[in-house]
Amino acid sequence: MNLATGAAKALTTFKTGRCLWPTLSYDGKSIVFERGFGIWKLDTHSGKAEELHFALRGVPSTPGVTHMALSSWSGLALSPDGKKIAVAAHGEIFAAGAKEGGEPQRLTFTDAAESDPQWSADSTKLVYRSERDGGSSLYVYDFDTNTEHALTHSHDTDVAPEWSPDGKSLAFLRNRKELHVLSLDDKAAIKADKVIATGEMGFYGDGGLAWSPDSKWLVYVPVGVDGFSNLYAVPADGSATSRPITFLANGQNASHIAWSPDGKYILFDTSQRAEDPQLARVDLIPHVPAFREDQFADLFRKQSTPGAPDTPTDRRRPGNPSETTPNNNGAQEPAEGGARRGAGADTTTKKPEPTKIVFEGIRNRLTLLPIGLGVRYPVISPDGKTLAFLAEVAGLANIYSYSLDELAREPAAAKQLTSGAGFKSDIAFAPDSKSIFYLESGGGRGAGGGSTVHSYSLDSNTAKNINLATSIDVDFDKEKMVVFDEAWSTLDHRFWNGSFNGANWPALRDEWRPYIEGARTGAELRRDINLLIGELNSSHSGISLPTPPSVRTGRLGLRYEREPYEKDGSLIVREIVPLGPASLEGSIKVGDKLAAVNGTPITGSVNLDSLLEDRAGKRTVLSIETAGKKRDAVVRPVSLQVESGLLYRDWVESRRAYVDKVSGGKLGYVHIAAMGDGDLAQLYIDLDAVNQAKKGVVIDVRNNNGGYVNGRVIDVFARKNYLLMTPRDGSPAPSRQALGQRALGLPTVLVTNESTLSDGEDFTEGYRALQLGKVVGTPTAGWIIFTGAQRLIDGSSVRTPGERIQTIEGKDMEWHPRPVDVEVTRPLGETETGEDAQLKKAAETLLMQLK
């Protein structure tokens, strides 16, 4: 490109392959670049390009076979007898004693990944998922014979395996389209395979299925009208079609379905995304409350013989045929095998009473428990008296309990059981209901992907670490092919359109396999897979490996003059970041020299970052020189992220001042950096009294990198006031603001650009579609897809663009930038002048609208 004229011309004319990483020589005569895993050189004068050839010497180095210690786990399952636990790590399944842990027994020895172990009702078998067949198949391990055999084996995706409480059946989902039930014999051999429900089944982790205590019913979560998900019940023998038991207009239901031990009600979490999930209870039969007075009547029950079990008086209420008859012990018995996922019911109990579902009027038998916290993963104790669940408070996820005992004398209230920053998961009750088992990660919600096993005593309120540790040998040359197959298969099943954007996905697998076979390191492997994924030409995609956090280098909130530094290494202060460490210190001024850090002089050979390594948040003494005189200044450096945030807020304030200036004080300004919860909260702050008092507001979403809250942001600008509220002798206020609903209620204009991505583009489309105002700037990026991630055996994650985003007219937004009404391109170098042509035009456009 000619920078003076803006004219551009092509330098290469290849018809296939990629040209990557172009590097221009200092004299401008040559460009070297990568193409087809080779290095090429282009003569800029003649335009001729040719591949350079290198003779590599030595033996290629690969990790080979490495000995890997394992002490971090996933997929915790507690056996129904409470004596054993099963876990997964690095694609293998392990089992150990639940009391002390120790070195677990390794059950699988395949190159493929295994996961999601589940115990049988008799605690002698494990079912788990395996990817060894090219899909996701189910295998079972029998501890009586120490053998394994396949239950399903194909390219289908079989997930969410759930043993029935009586141990005679196994339910699972296939390809998110079919609910299967396998009838099994005592050796877990298949007697029958029946599809009992079909449809689109949106499973969330392992929470999509639940058996009734009597093993006669299954509840699952299909996707319904407008993406709403509700609970459906279906007879396990397939004798009748499934019927809904909830009717909520929510998009997210049931991270875990908890069926009460007596079979009479179900608990599950439900919400719209971006809302705190609530705990819902649906009574399967009309609920008859328990009364404390009945406890006194129990004292007068007759005994047939001394020491024999009491024979109760039948106190069923007249006219309530749905109430089940007590058994000979005078109590409803819990299910054999207990709750799903080894929740720990006593397998010695007798056959449970039949589960009844009265569908008539069930819509009105749903209530929300007044817990007061966002509830995830609810689990009911085997005795039915205690609920355990996950809740996140102040960014920390911990386990809480809540009483379900109707006869308890104290009002039910949430009680925090665990503490700490580690994310908790996989809650399971012991058979006696007196303790729980769970996993805890070493840090926050995405810390490392693995966790340690813990138990918690509800009697003593103490937590205990169940230490599990072992090791395996990992052959890199075998594992890299597994990672490749996992990545390819994940996108093969989940990519947002079956045509793969015109790419021949099976052929690409064959084309890239030799490159993967030649990869010598994990980094090379992931680079090759990223290039393969690039053939799909999709945003929100790729493969990456989480890296441990690096040592934080402290930042002083100072920026320095370039020329003195390049001359002799002198650091002369050019700018002080508002609210940064130096700004808060107060005495440091522009033009001062930073002479030393903690006594170490700064010279041309000293790296400032090395002096500030690991100093974030710590007392640091700076030597400041002004007109030849030195003094000490004590600061507390911040992290790079904090300093970047301060610089961003300073930029926002400068843009606000610019709009105020070019509009003659008539217009306000807000910038939305992304579309996350924190950004929404910041928008609420930025739409302050100053902006509310203007005649209109400029909304800036340039460089917005997306998120998911665009709908709630739109609401702030779309809501209009239609009432005023005025106290006696007071000033009138718009009713929405007076009643506490966020609404701007002023005319607006939107500014966007080519670096506005994803949910920022969704917001731009919503603004246009709802005709909230004019859109100024340049068209957005056209990177609009809904994505998730799938973890692979080596710990890396494949980002999976799985859902298309369309306009209300049904037109795809991926590849199609959102247009603008008034196109304005910022001139090159405009930032240095303090001008902003896009903001200026936006202000002019809104002012014209206000006339």
Descriptive notes:
There is one protein chain. Helices cover about 15% and strands about 30% of the residues. It is built from 14 helices and 52 strands. Strand 28 and strand 29 form a beta hairpin. Helix 2 packs antiparallel against helix 3, helix 2 (about 475-495) runs parallel beside helix 4 (about 520-535) and helix 3 packs antiparallel against helix 4. The longest helix has 23 residues, at about 640-660. Residues about 305-350 and about 445-450 have low confidence and may be disordered.
Quick gist of this model?
By secondary structure, this protein is an alpha+beta fold. The protein has 14 helices and 52 strands.
Q: Average pLDDT, to the nearest integer? A: 89
Alpha carbon gap, first and last residue: 42 Å
Radius of gyration: 32 Å
Provide the β-strand percentage band.
25-35%
In helices, the fraction of residues equals 10-25%
| Class of secondary structure makeup | alpha+beta
Q: Main sheet, how many strands, which sense, barrel?
A: 6 strands, antiparallel
Number of strands: 52
Oligomer: single chain
Topology of helices and strands:
Blueprint: E1 20-24, E2 30-35, E3 38-43, E4 49-52, E5 65-70, E6 74-78, E7 84-89, E8 92-97, E9 101-106, E10 114-119, E11 125-130, E12 137-142, E13 147-150, E14 158-163, E15 169-174, E16 178-184, E17 190-198, E18 209-211, E19 217-220, E20 232-235, E21 243-244, E22 252-259, E23 265-271, E24 278-283, H1 292-297, E25 302-303, E26 310-311, E27 366-368, E28 376-380, E29 386-393, E30 396-403, E31 415-416, E32 424-429, E33 435-441, E34 451-457, E35 462-466, E36 470-475, H2 476-494, H3 505-518, H4 522-534, E37 542-544, E38 558-560, H5 562-568, E39 571-576, H6 581-585, E40 593-597, E41 600-601, H7 608-611, E42 620-626, E43 629-635, H8 640-662, E44 667-671, H9 677-686, H10 689-692, E45 696-700, H11 710-718, E46 724-725, E47 733-734, H12 735-738, E48 748-752, H13 759-769, E49 775-777, E50 785-791, E51 797-804, E52 822-823, H14 837-850
Parallel strand pairs: 44-45, 45-48, 48-49, 49-52
Antiparallel strand pairs: 1-2, 2-3, 3-4, 5-36, 6-7, 7-8, 8-9, 10-11, 11-12, 12-13, 14-15, 15-16, 16-17, 18-19, 19-20, 20-21, 22-23, 23-24, 24-27, 25-26, 28-29, 29-30, 30-31, 32-33, 33-34, 34-35, 37-51, 38-39, 39-40, 40-41, 40-42, 42-43, 46-47, 50-51
Helix pairs in contact: 2-3, 2-4, 3-4, 8-14, 11-13
